[in-house]
Design a protein that fits this description.
By secondary structure, the chain is an alpha+beta fold. Helix content is about 30%, strand content about 40%. It is built from four helices and seven strands; from the N terminus they run βααββαββββα.
Length: about 170
């Protein structure tokens, strides 16, 4: 299932990039996503910044058929590899991989931060969500897709709070 979600940030792509790459922001994102437990790792290499979050999330909002597969909680590992070199217009891009261990569900795609005409940033997540479960794969994908959209909307809300507390 193709996923395409966009939120706007009232800050430049560089400011949003720095926020996203901040361990403090990643900790906040994990906590505010309702994680029961989480770990954050941010590594800087010569030309890339890799962010790995591991979250244990409750499955309260999952449909009953999905909860039968995963139980009361699900582990989600999100790996984002950002290029340290901005695009020509000052934007940033990253590869994105989500996996849910012990399940046949994953997503691979990209994240793009692009400047808007009003000086803000358009933050787009795009990728292919796969649930390799015979007969139920499309139902599982349809159940997971809104969770991903909700996660990106959370990032939009967190960025407003972040920049109110830490103005550029």
């Amino acid at each position: 299932m193709r996923i395409h979600e966009t939120v706007e940030h009232a800050a430049s792509p560089q400011q949003v990039f720095e926020m996203i790459c901040s361990p403090d922001y990643q900790e906040l994102k994990c906590t505010r996503s309702g994680a029961l437990e989480h770990e954050v790792a941010v590594e800087v290499e010569d030309d890339a910044r890799t962010i790995v979050t591991r979250r244990r999330l409750p499955t309260d909002g999952f449909p009953d058929f999905a909860r039968k597969f995963v139980g009361d909680s699900v582990d989600v590992i999100e790996t984002t590899v950002w290029s340290l070199t901005p695009d020509e217009d000052g934007g940033h891009s990253a590869s994105l991989h989500l996996e849910i261990p012990r399940t046949p569900v994953s997503m691979s795609g990209s994240v793009v931060l692009e400047a808007t005409d009003d000086g803000g940033t358009e933050h787009t997540m795009e990728g292919e969500l796969k649930a390799n479960i015979p007969f139920l794969g499309s139902k599982v994908e349809a159940a997971v897709a809104p969770v991903l959209a909700k996660a990106l909307r959370l990032e939009g809300r967190l960025s407003r709070e972040w920049f109110e507390e830490k103005p550029a």
